[in-house]
Amino acid sequence: MKNIIKTAIIAIALTTVALTANAQSKGDMAAGAKIAFGTGTGYSNLGIGAKFQYNVTDPLRLEAGFTYFLPKNNVNMWDFSVNAHWLFPVSEGINLYPMAGLGMWGTRASYMGYSAGVSEVAFNLGGGADFKLSDSMFFNAEAKYLVSGGGLLVLSAGLGFMF
To answer: Per-residue pLDDT tens for 109-162?
Structure first.
C-alpha cells in the first residue's frame, strides 16, 4: 500500500511539473453543495455536503469539503477533507483534474440508546471534472478514494458558484 501511495504522489508531482495549463485565475474562489454516495467496508449510503475552493495559482486549486452521510441501519458517517486539484482545461468551460489530499472520516453506530464511533485520518486520491454552466456557476462530478484502514470510495456531484 505504501508503494501505491508513493507512486501516486510521484505521478502527481511529475504531472504538475510537466504540464502548465491555465484553467482558472489565481485568487478565484467558489463555494458549492453536493450529493454523494459513499461505499466501503460493508457500508454504503447517500450523503449531502458543502465545499469551498480557492485557486492558489492558475492551475492549482485547494478545496475544503465536508460530507454528512445520512443514517442507515443505525449507522451514520461523515467525511472532512482538504484536497489539491490540478486543473486541465480540455475545452471551453470544461476542466478535468487529478486530486490528492488529507482528510478525516468517521462512523457512528447507535442501538438501543447506546452509541459508539470511530474516526480515521485518510489520504485522498481521485479526480473530477468541472462543467461551466454560466459565468458564475458550474456543475462538478468527482470520485475519490479515502486510503485508510478500511478504505472508502466517495462519488459526488454538485453545483458550485464562483465569486
So the answer is: 888 888 888 888 999 999 999 999 999 999 999 999 998 877 889 999 999 999
Protein fold of 2-162: Porin (2.40.160)
CA 67 vs. chain centroid, Å, equals 9
pTM score, two decimals? Answer: 0.79
Return d(Cα 146, Cα 150) in angstroms, integer.
9
Which residues, 6+ apart, have CB-to-CB distance to 84 below 8 Å?
Answer: 60, 61, 62, 63, 99, 100, 101
Checking 72-77 for CB contacts under 8 A at 24+ apart, the result is 72/43, 72/45, 74/109, 74/110, 74/111, 75/43, 75/45, 75/107, 75/108, 75/109, 75/110, 76/107, 76/108, 77/38, 77/43, 77/45, 77/47, 77/105, 77/106, 77/107, 77/108
Q: What is the pLDDT of residues 7-23, one digit of tens each?
A: 555 555 544 443 333 34
All three cell numbers of 128, joined, read 473530477
